[in-house]
Amino acid sequence: MGIIYVNGRLVRETDEEVAARMLAAAQRGGIEAANPQFDRQRMMGASETKNMKKAGLIGSEPSKRVGATGPSLSLRTGNVVNPPVAEVDKAKAAADAKAKAAADKILKDAQDRALAYAAGTQAIADYKASAEAAKTAAEGRVADVYNPQETNITDERKRQLALLETLIKQGQTDITSAEQDFLKNIKPTSAYSNVPLVNMQAIQNPLLEALRQQGAGEGAVQSQSAMDQSLNNFMNQLQQQSASRYGDVQTNLLESLRNSGIGAASAGRQYLAQRQPEISSGIESAFGKQLSNLATNRANTEGDIMSQYGDALAKIADLQAETTSKYAPPSVAKGPAPAGYHYDAAGKVVANAGSAKAGAGTPTATQQESKPATPAGAGLHWEWNGKNWVAVPNKK
Amino acid sequence: MSMTDAYNQDFGLSEAAQVARRQKRSIANQQAALLGQQRGSRNIADITKAGVQGFNPTVSQYGRRGLAGPNVQSGIARKGLEDYAAGIQARLGTEQMSMQDELNKIAMDESMQQADLEAYLADQRLQKQRDIINAATQLRAFQSY
Hints:
The complex is a heterodimer. Chain A is built from six helices and eight strands; from the N terminus they run E-E-H-H-H-E-E-H-H-H-E-E-E-E. By secondary structure, chain A is mostly helical. In chain A, the strands form four sheets. In chain A, strands 1-2 form a two-stranded antiparallel ribbon. Chain A has a two-stranded antiparallel ribbon with strand order 3-4. In chain A, strands 5-6 form a two-stranded antiparallel sheet. In chain A, a hairpin with a 4-residue loop joins strand 7 (380-384) and strand 8. Chain B has one domain (3-130). Chain B is built from two helices and two strands, in the order αββα. A two-stranded antiparallel ribbon of chain B has the order 1-2. In chain B, helix 1 runs antiparallel to helix 2 (75-138). The two termini of chain B are 27 Å apart.
């Protein structure tokens, strides 16, 4: 539906008529000839043309269609043309245009802020994800380096303790075995027992009978024989006494050797019993020191990682603060919840339990904050995030 | 093979050598005793024989001097014959004592050599035991702890 100026009169024409007329004009002279202004200029006289120019309805710019009640599309430029305004409303129109321009600028700024905020938020999220990934990878490398070392040290410590236990037990066994073997073979001496010492009887003098026949005495012979017997007895007793004392000495010697062996074995076992906890302590200390050094190095390494991660988080926080302060959309004051709804802990509008007024599911947009207006072609649309309306770039 | 086994092997060789040496000495002692006994007996027999054979000439010597004979018994002759018999007795006693001392010395040597062997083996066994104890208490693998 449209209105066209024909022969000094405003004539209403249907959409079909408009389309047919524009098609015919296009067939006559191309795009420029299809301009309705061409028909008007061709059909109007000089005075009428002057008045139309004075009224601003025709000229170098595309003329506004008189009587149009809504925006239309310029066939020449393709721009949207606002509906015509009356002469008396020019000032208001100018003010409206100025206000619109200001509103457009505000909207453009808001769009730029929203875009910048979204881009900044995305960059921050990417940065944080990258920092997290780097931290995880570094922690993995640290684990790869230090976990096997910790395992090796712990295993070696256990092996050393087990070896110590084995050697101590083997040592105790060997000592006891050696002691038993020694004592078994050190028997009481019999070297000086029953020494076959000879104590000969004095030899009977073969001349005694002959002496008697010659009337000679036997006194000197008997005296000599008695003295010899006495010496024999003395020597025999002396040698028996010596053998007995040698036997005592030998017995004492062997007994002292037995005692020495028993003492040595006891000392050896006691030494092992004392050394075991000492060596165990030494092993624990040595490997504990190794583990401690390893843990210190690991802690330093992990500290470096966390320091770098902390720096990244601090930078992220700075970026977040800067992005929020510069580009975050202004917060919208939360009004009272619609009837039958309430705000949950997260600030989301949810239906009251058992409320007849509340519909099922999420409240409609009319129950939320009123959505801000967005002109067409801005590349943005508004989405309700549960708290606020947020400008979101359109998906291409 | 434990440490004691190793030491037993080494000690066994040493002990066997010492026992063998001791047995040889014991045999030598027995031979020495036998020879000493034979020598002493022969000497005694010789002294006895010489004494018996010399008695009648001594009596005859006193008879030529008129100091002895039928119905004659002088004090000098009786004293001389008694001294002669006592001298023979002294020689027999000396020889007998010498033989007895030699035999008893061999017996004592035998006992002392046996005692020395026992003492030596006991020392060796004690040393073996000490070596085992020292080895057991060295704990070389843990010297750094």
